[in-house]
Write a structure and sequence with these properties.
Radius of gyration: 35 Å
Mean pLDDT: 78
Strand content: 25-35%
Low-confidence stretches: 49-180
Number of helices: 11
Distance between the termini: 104 Å
Length: 1051
């Protein structure tokens, strides 16, 4: 029987009819016309993969109106067929069971999707195998289908089983995108477990597995990693098709294609049932194809690996008579061999046998030890070999019926006093809320509907308020969460020499070598996240053209830097990270996608940089009219894009560009072409580069980029290419970068392009054990993707892809046994040691042991600092202050008041012969408006300059009045920020003078024990700061300061 709710009235088609209360138009063909006979009508809706006759099955009984649909007949209970053969399958995505399901071998009984509606009790399994691997074998099965292990086979690697019942879409997990959390989706939205759709299905968590149980008897379990099990109800025996066969207890007829013919080989079978392509996947092995022969697998059948499964007298001996261990041993050896003994892969393969035994009520003995598959459980939980199959959850009234069918199960279980809140163990008093039959964690904000936003508070209370999406947003489910999302995005592009195209489409060129504000929020609003993007240029290469050097993004409290030429790497808060990276708060996801580094933020800002000559910044429509910078204001009008920071319009492009220039600390920058008019190629010189074998390839409608033209206009990219290639006198690398910029723009826009690189035209060099692909998801092929979800954004990009059996370990492709470790969203290369958490933890990534961490502390005289992108304990940064009230604090912390007003030498480099010598002199006086003694002037001496700053914040350099910011030399620079004057020297010394009369001298670790004068020697010991120039120790700081009076100044 199939029952559909009234919401499907008039929206169905198929043998059940259209459900419109008119029985006269039931016999409608699939093309919408009326059938002339019952036979024609039935034939029209026949599944093409089914046989042409029903053999001995009974026929369909017509029922008026088709509100119910019944099948008469009997089917035998079928069990798992032993001795099934193993066949190799290619990677990809295949349909295991057809959609909608068949209960007669030749007839579909469910209505189709005539109006894009989802029909109740629609059963659809899709098994997507990992693009990471091409290690394959298959075991066709019957009613009880097991999918253990990490290889794409029917008893093998499960990438994403997605049972579809009543619109249920459930991406449990996958090998290349394994979710660390137990997340499930119903109709595209994530739900917390346990979850029940009344009268249809229930979802629950038990041990290491997630379970689906439907009212019509389907059962699915998955361990969130690699082991899936599907049990069909009896009525489906002999009535299904797909990779898993027909469940008729005869393995010999399982290899049937969608067309109903016997497959010649596993490749043909798999391709027949493939329902979707995965970028980067192929029908066969590519590159250095991994092979494991029987001799190589023998090692992994031993006791040190998989042998524990079948060992006589081993922990599983009580199960051997009930569940043959041989197939599980072979599957484990197959996986372990191809994955080179990868720890997680091996342990999950063994755990598959444990699950099978426990599902049959057989107890096994402890098999995990600290050194062999040692269990790791999340906070407030512990491992049990035989724990409750119905664990306590915050949803006391929602204990699923199905879990009680298993006596016990292996897994992580909450500690005493804690219960499951979704996928976390929380104190019983910290449970969340139930709202409209759904569970939400405490503190969680959620949309109950498009007009109602709620928050789960303490004691199960739910507070809701009426909300409306803004003018530039729409309510929809995105990434599994219902909410208000941008209706569209603005695009800012920088490419080539560089050439800019603002959010509103205005184009201009910039030849400067400075740092500029590319875009930032300048009209804040409560719902908008503050951000800014800076772009640094430098001048170099052919024709002294300006090139992108560094992109810096400030958002969500992070500072992220990407530099030209540095693939697979970013700097976050001055610390260097190997990609991919997901921050602990999940607000930033950064990954390598093809040739590009891609940043995604929770605020909706996305940035793509190919670490060469192309940068794309996209922001949500909610930022319309509220941004500023070189990217314009994004208000839809390109005519007012050239706004100055104050809001007025610039009189020229040069004025606009200069107004968004950032002050430089360590040297001068130029506005391009040494202040002269930049040279331009005339039409005659540029003409040859417009040919189809050069820049003309971009706009050639019959060329490889033709399909992209409707998505991304080729006009600007063609003109930019002409400009850059002509300026570089036809240099091939400049041409290739120009073409690559258009390719990135096309693929980011979702357009398909044709192959354009050849071995002689713009070939892309790839590292060993990898090859070029026009469309690949690089993020799926990383060592990190073995453990955490890959932070992929767009569909695919061109770039290098590791050969089968290898994964990206940063930019290099390594074999799986050489992969490193993941910790809190961060990837560690094998053998790498990282100090983190403000130098409180040191972690080392071991190939065999995984990540091993220990608690550490910096010595008392050191502090945690980031040097060259790495946290480390260093001699602390020293600060010496002369504060209002005439008090002084040394670098090492000694302090006291001065005796009187005067001019004092406060610090200097002891080595007066050093080229980095400096001296700082402070004039302290009571002659101020507030009569409080404080600094009224600072005098700083360098080898190359003498700088004076007075209490009016006026600056003189070598006696000449100077406006800021300025670079005095390569070593000395001056800047003004928030009213303060800062003088910086490359030796690591900064002097900050504030209008309040406070002077702060800051020195770095490089100056430890090299300083003289009252600020001390900066050696970490305050006890030796009370010394006079002659070495004598005195009682207080005042005597020291008085002894260091500047004799070359009067008063």
């Amino acid at each position: 029987m199939v029952a559909v709710p009234s919401s499907y009235f008039g929206g169905t088609c198929g043998l059940c009819g259209n459900f419109n209360e008119d029985s006269e138009d039931e016999m409608t063909l699939s093309d919408g016309t009326q059938a002339s006979s019952v036979e024609d009508w039935a034939e029209s809706w026949r599944d093409p993969s089914c046989q042409d006759d029903c053999e001995d099955q009974e026929t369909l009984q017509d029922t008026a109106g088709c509100g119910e649909f019944r099948w008469k007949g009997s089917l035998n209970i079928l069990g798992e067929k032993e001795g099934d053969s193993h066949r190799d399958l290619p990677t990809g995505a295949w349909e295991l069971l057809p959609s909608p399901p068949i209960i007669c071998i030749c007839l579909e009984i469910l209505p189709g999707f005539c109006r894009n509606t989802q029909i109740s009790s629609n059963l659809h399994f899709v098994q997507k195998f990992s693009p990471c691997k091409a290690f394959t074998k298959t075991t066709p099965n019957s009613t009880d289908l097991n999918l253990p292990g990490n290889s794409p086979r029917a008893k093998g690697f499960a990438k994403k089983p997605a049972p579809n019942s009543s619109g249920l879409r459930e991406p449990f997990a996958n090998r290349c995108h394994r979710r660390p959390l137990h997340l499930l989706q119903v109709n595209g939205a994530f739900v917390e477990l346990p979850f029940t759709q009344k009268g249809q299905f229930e979802l629950y968590h038990s041990g290491v597995h997630g379970f689906v149980r439907t009212v019509f008897g389907l059962r699915v379990s998955f361990d969130w990693y690699s082991y899936a099990r599907v049990i069909l109800p009896d009525d489906y025996a002999g009535a299904v098709c797909g990779l898993c066969g027909n469940a008729n207890r005869n393995a010999d007829d399982d290899f049937v294609t969608r067309e109903g013919k016997r497959a010649v080989d596993e490749i043909q079978l798999a391709n027949s049932w493939k329902v979707g392509d995965v970028p980067g996947c192929s029908a066969g092995c590519v590159g250095d194809c991994p092979v494991c022969n029987q001799k190589q697998k023998q090692l992994y059948r031993g006791d040190g690996y998989c042998g524990v499964i079948a060992r006589a007298g081993g922990p599983f001996r009580a199960c051997h008579n009930a569940v043959d261990p041989t197939p599980f041993l072979e599957d484990c050896a197959f996986d372990a061999c191809h994955y080179k003994g990868h720890r997680d892969t091996l342990c999950k393969a063994i755990a598959a046998y444990v699950t099978e035994c426990q599902s049959r009520g057989i107890n096994v003995e402890q098999w995990r030890t600290p050194s062999f598959c040692g269990p790791s459980c999340p906070p407030h939980s512990h491992y049990e070999l035989c724990g409750s199959s119905c664990p306590a959850t915050c949803r006391v009234r929602a204990v699923p019926e199905g879990c009680a069918s298993v006596l016990c199960t292996e897994g992580c279980f909450c500690d005493e006093g804690f219960v499951l809140s979704g996928d976390e163990c929380v104190p019983a008093g910290e449970c969340g809320c139930e709202h409209r039959d759904r569970y939400y964690k405490k503190g969680e904000d959620f949309y109950a509907s498009c007009r109602e936003r709620c928050r789960c508070k303490a004691n199960g209370a739910v507070e809701c308020e009426e909300v409306f999406c803004s003018a530039h947003e729409e309510c929809r489910v995105e990434d599994g969460v219902l909410g208000c999302y941008p209706a569209g995005y603005g695009r800012l592009v920088v490419s080539g020499d560089p050439h800019y195209v603002t959010f509103d489409g205005r184009a201009f060129d910039l030849q400067g070598s400075c740092t500029y504000v590319l875009a930032r929020l300048c009209k804040p609003e409560r719902r908008l996240t503050n951000f800014s993007v800076l772009l640094e240029h430098d001048v170099g290469g052919r024709g002294k053209v300006a090139l992108m050097k560094k992109v810096v993004i400030f958002i969500h409290g992070y500072t992220v830097s990407m530099e030209r030429g540095r693939k697979w790497e970013v700097t976050v808060d001055r610390e260097r990270y190997t990609l991919p990276l997901v921050t602990e708060d999940k607000k930033l996801r950064i990954g390598q996608e093809g040739n590009n580094v891609v940043l995604q933020s929770a605020a909706g800002l996305r940035l793509l940089y190919n670490v060469a000559t192309y940068l794309l910044v996209t922001i949500p429509d909610s930022y319309r009219g509220r941004v500023c910078g070189l990217g314009g204001n994004y208000n839809g009008d390109p005519g007012d894009d050239f706004q100055l920071p104050g809001g007025s319009l610039a009189q020229s492009t040069e004025e606009f560009i200069t107004s968004w220039k950032m002050p430089v600390k360590d040297g001068a920058c130029t506005d391009g072409c040494d202040g002269k008019v930049c040279p331009v190629c005339d039409a005659t010189d540029a003409a040859p580069y417009g040919a189809s074998d050069s820049c003309g390839l971009i706009r050639d409608p019959a060329g490889p980029f033709g399909p992209c033209h409707p998505r991304v206009s080729p006009v600007e990219y063609f003109n930019h290419c002409l400009h850059d290639v002509c300026a570089a006198n036809g240099a091939r690398d400049v041409l290739c970068h120009s073409l690559q910029a258009y390719v990135a723009a096309c693929q980011a826009a979702g357009a398909e392009i044709g192959g354009w690189r050849t071995t002689t035209f713009c070939p892309l060099s790839c590292p060993p054990h990898s090859h070029y692909e026009l469309c690949t998801r690089t993020c799926d092929f990383t060592c990190a993707s073995l453990s955490v979800p890959a932070p992929c954004s767009w569909t695919c990009f061109e770039g290098c892809q590791c050969d089968d059996g290898y994964l990206f370990d940063g930019e290099a492709c390594v074999s799986l046994e050489q992969c490193g470790c993941m910790y809190q969203g961060r990837y560690f290369k094998a053998g790498e040691t990282i100090i983190s958490s403000n130098c409180s933890k040191k972690c080392n990534c071991h190939l065999s042991q995984g990540l091993v961490c220990e608690e550490i502390r910096c010595p008392p005289d050191e502090v945690c600092a980031t040097r060259d992108g790495v946290q480390q304990c260093v001699k602390r940064e020293g600060r010496c202050r002369v504060s209002p009230g005439a008090s002084l604090t040394t670098f090492d912390g000694a302090g006291g008041r001065l005796l009187a007003s005067g001019t004092y030498k406060v610090t200097a480099l002891c080595n007066e012969q050093s080229p980095n010598w400096f001296k700082v002199v402070v004039d302290v006086s009571e002659c101020r408006d507030d009569s409080i003694p404080a600094a009224v002037a600072v005098f700083i001496f360098f080898r190359e300059a003498f700088i004076t700053v007075n209490n009016n914040m006026e600056v003189w350099v070598n006696g000449l009045f100077t406006r800021l910011p300025t670079a005095v030399s390569k070593a000395v620079s001056l800047s003004a920020v928030a009213g303060n004057i800062t003088v910086s020297h490359t030796s690591g010394m900064d002097v900050l003078f504030s209008p309040s009369g406070e002077v702060t001298v800051t020195v770095g670790a490089a100056l430890v024990n090299q300083l003289c004068a009252p600020c001390g020697n900066f050696n970490g010991d305050p006890s030796d700061d009370l010394k006079l120039p002659d070495g004598r120790t005195v009682r207080n700081i005042a005597e020291v300061v008085d002894a260091w009076k500047a004799r070359d100044f009067a008063g």
